[in-house]
Specification:
The structure is a single chain. With about 700 residues, the protein is of the alpha+beta class. It is built from 16 helices and 24 strands. The strands form six sheets. A five-stranded antiparallel beta sheet has the order 12-13-16-15-24. The longest helix is centred in the last third of the chain and has 44 residues, at about 475-515. The protein is elongated.
Length: about 700
């Protein structure tokens, strides 16, 4: 095939040529052409799925009627990291094979217009024209033929006979399995999804290799409301001969893998189980230290001030409405938000302004319990006898909402499995799970109304109730102190000073209300006290709303002397490369269960001894402050809430074992002993 030189004009960041290659192995009439890109150093073009940004090259052709060109073929790409984005593409030089067919024309010209996006840190849309003069009956030049032949060799092959593939959604992960007789020496290098918007391209992809099975664990994309019936892509393998091979693969997912009505019935049963688990998790939120005082206060209010069943019912409904509204709000944000940092249960505790606002609310409630001020005394005419029930209902609604907002992170150990299911279920089912959680949280208080006999469990009103009411103020002050401490970790000393000053301002404002905005005060004095208090409290609220994150919570070295390092992907890779077992502790200072596990188990003498003896690498992934990279790492290991403990086995680079959320020394020691034994697990590495 005689070839006249292709016309190529230099573009801004790529020189593009159309070149001729070898004969196609299965056809005497077809040959391979190659669309060659030579790129400026540091720039890249994209694969058919560009990843998080970009667009693949396209071309339109003009050629003789007896000739035809197939679609652009895509050689094996590589991962290109441009934090926080991950692209799939090519650097330096790439040749895209194109199948060419000639019948009836001895000589002709192929003209093409090529468009592409070239990127470095910035991206530029470019285009160029190419031309190739062909004489099909004559041979092509040796250099171009070799270049195109090398590109053809890099094309993925079809799935070998005997491979069985399936996929499933597990929590926030997608697990893909290939069953085939792989033997002992196969290693997975990478997986490239063919379609965007299905998996998180920048998240860690892990694999487990056994003699007859390869398992890939991907992180489901935050934009994937529902998974497709099939996930297609490119899996890259190598074996004992060190030759890199790539295969086009297709994994049936969900109903496509399982089939028919049985799957739908199973899904319905799973969704019902999900709602029941959510309800049970909501029940448990009532025994959290920061929530139980609120329940006690509302119970006392029923005993001391409520006599009519209708009024008790109204308060119970208001409390339930507050719980449901609050949990539905959190669920809606988690289900619909595009911010990956908000994809972990308890994300609201990462906001210092939220912490400050709740601290002001609890501190004010505590002062009210001590008698510094009383709401009904502030507006005696408006809050007359007819509106007492309305005021109490508003208070019940606020109590229910607050219980969820500050108690939900503590309940994450019980809600973790439920949360993972809610975030991966259809949005309607996931939203129903959050509503069910709110119903469970409101159930104990509602029980006091539905079963009037339970009110008899509470002693009759008397002077003791005033003492009990004041005692309940101190757990609220304790919760306030805890919130200030967590806010200090996020904002530094200046932020905590501003929050403490705001608390003092609120205390002063409420003291003025209790001192002068009383029933016995004259209207002018009451109005002046209300105005002054509003100004002082308003300044405090504005100050709290402007709190911002100014520091990162460090990975602490415990008093036992164990060295915990702050989590990064690079540190994890380094430890795994050294064939060490690695324990990753996903935690936060506002997570009470995390602290219980840390003090009661991770710092116990037996656990410390085995961790030190087995030289386990210790990484602490601290989510006290929002951190997108750590949240993605949490999802990558299969977690959705705090605490999560991921244990990577020694000499293995693959999917970690997730420890139970409530730890004991026996659990940790047993898991570490197993993890320090060699196995056949590998973590995906990109071919370079």
């Amino acid at each position: 095939m005689a070839v006249a030189p292709s016309v190529a004009q230099p573009a801004h960041h790529a020189v593009v040529r159309l070149i001729s290659g070898p004969t196609v192995a299965d056809s005497s009439h077809d040959r391979w052409l190659g669309l060659e890109f030579k790129l400026t150093p540091g720039w890249h073009v994209y694969w058919r799925n560009p990843g998080d940004a970009g667009s693949p090259p396209t071309a339109t052709w003009t050629l003789p009627a007896a000739w035809s060109l197939g679609a652009i073929q895509w050689p094996r790409p590589r991962r290109i990291e441009v934090p926080p984005l991950t692209a799939f593409g090519y650097e330096e030089r790439v040749v895209f094979p194109i199948r060419f067919s000639s019948r009836g024309a001895d000589r002709g010209i192929i003209r093409g217009h090529v468009s592409w996006v070239a990127c470095r840190l910035e991206c530029v849309a470019e285009d160029d024209s190419v031309m190739l003069v062909l004489t099909p009956a004559e041979p092509t030049s040796g250099r171009d033929e070799r270049v195109v032949a090398d590109a053809v060799d890099r094309l993925p092959t079809t799935t070998p006979a005997g491979w069985t593939m399936r996929g499933e959604s597990v929590g926030t992960s997608i697990v893909l399995s290939v069953h085939a007789p792989f033997g002992d020496d196969v290693r997975v290098l990478d997986f490239f999804p063919a379609d965007p918007g299905v998996v998180e391209h920048s998240a860690r992809v892990t694999s487990t290799v056994k003699r007859d099975r390869i398992t890939l664990r991907l992180v489901r994309s935050q934009y994937a409301n529902a998974l497709p019936e099939r996930i297609t892509g490119l899996v890259v393998l190598t074996g004992r001969d060190s030759i890199i091979r790539s295969y086009d693969v297709e994994f049936p997912i969900g109903a496509a893998a399982s089939g028919g009505d049985a799957t739908r019935r199973a899904a319905s049963a799973n969704w019902a189980t999900l709602l029941l688990l959510a309800f049970a998790s909501g029940l448990l939120v009532n025994v959290m230290p920061c929530v139980f005082p609120l329940l006690g206060i509302k119970a006392l209010s029923l005993s001391s001030t409520v006599t009519r069943p209708s009024e008790r019912s109204l308060r119970a409904l208001a409390y339930a409405a507050g719980s449901i509204a609050s949990s539905a709000l959190i669920g809606g944000i988690l289900l619909l938000s595009s911010d990956p940092a908000r994809s972990a249960w308890g994300f609201q505790m990462q906001s210092p302004s939220f912490l400050g606002g709740v601290a002001l609310l609890l501190f004010g409630a505590g002062l009210s319990l001590l008698g510094v001020f009383e709401v009904p005394a502030l507006f005696p005419r408006w809050l007359g006898a007819r509106t007492d029930g309305l005021t109490a209902s508003v208070g019940s609604f606020a109590a229910g909402a607050t219980a969820i907002l500050i108690g939900a992170p503590c309940a994450a150990p019980f809600f973790g499995v439920t949360l993972a299911g809610a975030l991966t279920a259809p949005h309607a089912v996931g939203f129903a799970a959050f509503v069910s959680f709110g119903l469970g949280a409101a159930a104990p208080f509602a029980m006091l109304v539905v079963t009037p006999a339970s009110i008899a469990w509470i002693p009759r009103s008397g002077r003791w109730m005033e003492t009990a009411k004041q005692l309940l103020a101190f757990p609220l002050f304790g919760a306030t102190a805890w919130l200030v401490w967590v806010a200090q970790l996020q904002t530094g000393s200046s932020g905590s000073a501003a929050l403490l000053a705001s608390l003092c301002a609120v205390a002063f404002a409420l003291w003025m209300l209790g001192r002068w905005a009383t029933v016995s005060a004259s209207p002018s004095v009451r109005r002046a006290a209300l105005a002054a208090s509003a100004v002082v409290a308003g300044v405090a609220i504005v100050s709290v709303s402007r709190l911002t994150v100014s520091s990162r919570a460090p990975a602490n070295t415990s008093s036992t002397g164990l060295h915990w390092q702050a989590y990064t992907d690079a540190r994890l890779d380094s430890l795994l490369s050294a064939s060490r077992a690695v324990l990753v502790d996903f935690t936060a200072e506002w997570c009470l269960t995390c602290k219980v596990n840390e003090i009661g188990t991770l710092q116990s003498e037996r656990v410390v001894s085995v961790l030190r003896e087995r030289s386990v690498g210790l990484l602490r992934a601290n989510l006290t402050v929002a951190d997108t990279s750590i949240t993605r790492a949490l999802h990558a290991v299969g977690g959705a809430s705090l605490p999560t403990y991921a244990l990577f086995a020694a000499a293995e680079r693959g999917s970690p074992r997730l420890l139970p959320i409530l730890l004991t020394p026996d659990i940790v020691v047993s898991a570490v002993e197993r993890a320090t034994a060699a196995s056949r697990t590998t973590v995906l590495e990109s071919p370079r």
